[in-house]
């Protein structure tokens, strides 16, 4: 977990989602469908991903 990274990609629209889910996606730095970001594999980012997992594609990459 220390040397791993989350590759997060938005694959479904956030339209018609609850405000909390939209906020989680915004905090992750995702804007449009197909946009991909990297974040450290920490409990904070795991929690954000867990809230919106139905809209995301997540891969764990070792550094």
Strand order of the main beta sheet, please? Answer: 2-1-3
Report how far the terminal alpha carbons are from each other.
10 Å
Which spans of ≥5 residues are poorly predicted at pLDDT below 50?
none
Per DSSP, the total helix count is 2
CATH superfamily: Ribosomal protein L30/L7
What structural class results from the helix and strand content? alpha+beta
**Which oligomeric state applies?**
single chain
Proportion in helices = 25-40%
pLDDT averaged residue by residue: 95
Q: Using the 3D structure, state the CATH architecture.
A: 2-Layer Sandwich
Sheet-strand content, in percent, reads: 25-35%
The largest sheet, given as strand count, sense and whether it forms a barrel, is: 3 strands, antiparallel
Reading off the top of the CATH hierarchy, the class is best stated as Alpha Beta
CATH topology: Ribosomal Protein L30, Chain: A
Radius of gyration: 11 Å
């Amino acid at each position: 977990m220390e040397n791993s990274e989350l590759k997060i990609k938005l694959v479904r629209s956030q339209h018609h989602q609850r405000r909390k889910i939209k906020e989680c996606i915004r905090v992750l730095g995702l804007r449009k469908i197909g946009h991909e970001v990297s974040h450290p594999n920490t409990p904070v980012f795991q929690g954000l991903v867990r809230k919106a997992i139905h809209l995301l594609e997540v891969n764990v990459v070792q550094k």
